[in-house]
Amino acid sequence: MKAIIKIKPLDFIWETSDPFLFCAYHEDQYPKGNEKLGPDALLAGRNMGQDFTPKDGWRMYHGTTVPGFPAHPHRGFETVTIVQKGLVDHSDSLGAAGRFGNGDVQWMTAGKGVQHSEMFPLLNSEEENPFLLFQIWLNLPRDKKMVAPHFKMLWNEDIPKAIVKDNKGKLIEITIITGDLEGKTAVDPAPDSWAANPENEINIWTIKMAPNSEYTFPNSSEGIDRSIYFFKGNEIESEGYTIPVNHRIITHGHKELTITNGDTESHFLLLQGKPIGEPVAKQGPFVMNNQQEIREAIMEYQKTEFGGWPWPSYDHVHEKHKGRFALYPDGTEISKDI
């Protein structure tokens, strides 16, 4: 029996399977930064506030001075933000903040409600600021949707990597954001996450395959959904298919799958997990189990703004001299070098 169920082209927003809600993939070749940490370039011709067209290879998104996503609310799910290149400035309604990137991961449980902003400061004023980010929305089960919000940093230095050699000695590098592989176990996820229970077999990995290498994925238990997103490279082969870049490979996790890479380095994101199997009601930034709960979320946000906004602006960025850091709601601050 073959492992591959379906192969689908990737859209701007990547489709996912339960327990994941979707994955946003942002890759931008930002120019040099200016004194306000925005692009040192003319912004004429852009739909400011809604700039999703990759003019000149980059986008401002909802930002008007600095690229990114000014303050917005969430309830009922989690965001797992993987920044492979560049930096993100986080600020939220709990008073927490951070600057992270270049391999760091932020895990945020929205729970009963939080506002946050995600801005992309362009710190380098001497050369370009390349940027590559995945944001994965991971659902919360009914009994966890109204837990207290929680924010956690998984620093690049602490995230385990498995280096595998195929039978020709070629290397496959796997970054283990959740799950375990080759005797290496990921940093603990947020405590109320569906990923916190090992029985749910949540694996979030990024994978880099050397040219002409081959990799066989370890099997999961039966009933575990697995998708492999081929986002950079040329083409790969598996189970008689030749698969071009920018495709999602949906597989049975419990059946053996081998990928043979082509003649260029290839990159993948793997999302795997046991489905939650509950009704999902989504509207914008809220994910609950039914429409009544969505209406309640909207009404509560309109009334309380989930604690308000304690920062000077909705597109707040931190001082240029700040390195990577995490400031938690209790006032604890952890600092890292850029």
UniProtKB/TrEMBL annotation:
InterPro entries membership: Pirin, Pirin_C_dom, Pirin_N_dom, RmlC-like_jellyroll, RmlC_Cupin_sf
Protein name in the entry: Pirin family protein
Pfam families: Pirin, Pirin_C
Residues covered by the Pirin C-terminal domain: 205-307
SUPFAM superfamilies reported in the protein's UniProt record: RmlC-like cupins
Gene3D superfamilies: Jelly Rolls
Protein family (similarity comment): Belongs to the pirin family.
Every Pirin N-terminal domain range: 65-138
